[in-house]
Amino acid sequence: MTDTFQERPWWHPDKHADRRPFLLARGRIKAALRGWFEDRGFVEIETSALQLSPGNEAHLHAFSTEWRTEGGDASRLYLHTSPEFACKKLLAAGERRIFTFAPVYRNRERGTLHHPEFTMLEWYRAGEPYEILMRDCAELLALAAAAAETDLLTFRDEPVDPSASLERLTVAEAFRRHARIDLLATLSTPEPDRDGLAEQALAVGVRVASDDTWSDIFSRVIVDCIEPRIGRGQATILMEYPTVEAALARPSPNDPRVAERFELYACGVELANAFGELTDPVEQRRRFEAEMTEKQRVYGERYPIDEDFLAALAAMPPASGIALGFDRLVMLATGARTIEQVLWTPVAVS
Predict the structure, then answer these.
(1) Fewer CB within a 10 Å sphere, N or C end of the chain?
(2) pLDDT, tens digit, for every residue of 197-229?
(3) CATH number of the domain bearing residue 134
(4) Residue 19 forms part of a structural domain
(5) What pTM value is reported for the model?
(6) Does residue 5 lie within any of the structural domains?
(7) Are 95 and 43 within 8 A, CB to CB?
């Protein structure tokens, strides 16, 4: 299929015929994954897409709408960027193992791997360490490939063997190996050492602007030096992110400079983001406020904080949770080249 989405609508019979094998495989993969969770005692849940807050990450952008009472009074609601807040409220309510295939919505996103509306597979384990989620990821990769009747996950001719063991690599190790940067040295003060990271980044050819923050430089090193080199041949768990880059994760008990957060990469594609969940509402509020201050600085807007979520967090048990881009997983299992090949009804554009 060589044409773009704009050249022919998705409902054109010829275009639908091209996409249909991917869509049928999508259904098989979803059924296989659903069975995997049910066999392990997970309960499938559904969350409301309309929320008081869409999430409080600085660089995620939401769709907003108005809710009106019968009397005509208006208040703002948002389409969630993730079902995370609602899922954690269910953990506070007493659920122990839950999963959901949730439609989620993100503004300012459209491209080969991005779509304004997509499906997030999230699952949570109360009272279980986050390392178990790494095992889950390995099993689900293999299961998705089997359901798609393939031996390899692929994207842009980059293959990954889903039966191979997952590489585990800390973020600090990745910075040393692929960028020759000592990341931990820049985390040794109460505030990250922006100038120390900038100096090291410039020395290896990473662009640094005068107004870049530590986080800006960190993200650029990840994109320029790390992501192109991981998840090749075998899937990679990139783990132990700096705590300042893990707003919803608890600090590592071994080193508070880093957090219980990992991301899963395969075929050069980021597939999942996992946390040992932070359950301290005071610390969570502080992090949310810092994220919204950064959002205001960069984009001139901020989202409200969900006070109900913070109240639930105080009652939530220790837990681990993960969000996996289901459409991207289907892409890798089917060899699709764009996300719109694996969406039944892509969002129309004018």
Answers:
(1) C
(2) 999 999 999 999 999 999 999 999 999 999 999
(3) 3.30.930.10
(4) yes
(5) 0.94
(6) no
(7) yes
